[in-house]
Structure formats: C-alpha cells, structure tokens
UniProtKB/TrEMBL annotation:
Transmembrane segments: none annotated. GO terms for cellular component: endoplasmic reticulum. Residues 1-21 form the signal peptide. The keyword Transmembrane does not apply. GO terms for biological process: protein folding; Wnt signaling pathway. It is found in: Endoplasmic reticulum. The lineage of its organism: Eukaryota, Metazoa, Ecdysozoa, Arthropoda, Crustacea. Belongs to the MESD family. It comes from Hirondellea gigas. Keywords: Chaperone, Endoplasmic reticulum, Signal, Wnt signaling pathway. This is LDLR chaperone boca-like. It comes from the Eukaryota. Its main location: endoplasmic reticulum. Pfam families: Mesd (PF10185).
Length: 188
C-alpha cells in the first residue's frame, strides 16, 4: 500500500510542476517584454541582462571591473612619511597605471621598438606584467594592471642606456645615462 501512495505523490508532484512551468501568456509580461527582440533598445537589453543576472552569485572582488573593486587597504606607517613614493606605490596597488617612456633621440623607431620589446620581456621575466604600446618614434606607454609594479619597472628602466626618461603620475625620472640623470645622482 505504501509504494502506491508514494507513486501517486510523485505523479501528483510531476503534474503540478508541469502546470506551473507553462509558458506565460502576454498578460503576465511587462510591456517591454512583449516586443519583438529585434525592436529592443539599450534600456530593454539592460533590463533583460538584469533579469538574467538576478539569481547569480556575486563575483569575487578580484573578478570585478576595476571601478567596482574595493580600494586596497593601506596601513598608515608614520615612518613612511619620509618616502612619499612608497605611499603612492601602495595607493596604486591593484589599479591600472600607465608609464610614459621616452628613448634618446639618436635611435630610430625600429630600434626603439626593438629595445622596448626587450625591456617588456625582461620585466615579464621578473614577474612585472606590462603591456607596451608605441605612441611616437621615441615614446612608448607601458601599462600595468597592478600599478604598484610601475616603480619596480622604473628602477629597471632608468638603468637602461637607451632611456631618456620615464614618467609615472606626472613625475619624471631621468635615465642614469643622461646628463639630467647624472646630475640627479650627484644631488643624492
């Protein structure tokens, strides 16, 4: 007798679920959902996307777009007040940052492209991830997805003989093989 009751219950649950899963008629849908998909505008598509993502789990902080990520936690150290670059470096952790790199004028575009590519490879081998874009015959942009790595890259780049200067956040660092760089080294 018990198996028959169980079988009837399962059958009843299946029928109820089929009835509940029926296709909605036009009366239940909002006005924007009754349109033909070809007639959807950006607002309708945004509503559809919101409806699609309604039941999804939230993304991890490192998977979020950069503008939605929580800011990095900076531990204030009073002894670090003497080193503003270190504070700036900590504030750029996890944020995209661009460094403008300028080669000496005596090199051709092909030469500049060759050694900036070599610099990018050397940085990559040292676990510093940077994208390189040529913007002029003697200028390139190095883009870091983790901005705190830009200062490590700067320390490497200023040692290169072909470098004229590099700039991070409007601060210019001259190459050590330039007259300006030699003058800065004497002051230190």
């Amino acid at each position: 007798m018990a198996p028959q009751i169980l079988l009837r219950t399962v059958f009843l649950v299946c029928i109820i679920s089929v009835i509940q899963c029926r296709k909605h008629d036009g009366k239940d849908k909002p006005k924007w959902a009754k349109k033909d998909i070809g007639d959807y505008n950006e607002v309708d598509m945004e509503r559809l996307l919101d409806q699609w993502e309604e039941d999804e789990e939230p993304l991890e902080p490192d998977e979020l777009p950069e503008h939605l990520r929580p800011p990095p936690k900076i531990q204030f150290d009073p002894s670090a007040m003497n080193d503003p670059e270190q504070l700036l470096q900590m504030s750029k952790k996890g944020k995209t940052l661009m460094m403008f790199v300028k080669a000496k004028d005596k090199y051709t575009r092909d030469q500049v492209e060759a050694f900036t590519k070599l610099w990018q490879s050397a940085l990559h081998n040292n676990h510093v991830q940077a994208e390189r874009y040529m913007v002029d015959d003697h200028r390139a942009i190095f883009m870091f997805s983790d901005g705190s790595q830009a200062w490590e890259a700067k320390d490497f780049l200023v040692e290169q003989e072909e470098l004229q200067d590099c700039a991070i956040d409007n601060r210019v660092y001259h190459g050590h093989h330039t007259p300006e760089g030699k003058q800065e080294a004497r002051k230190k």
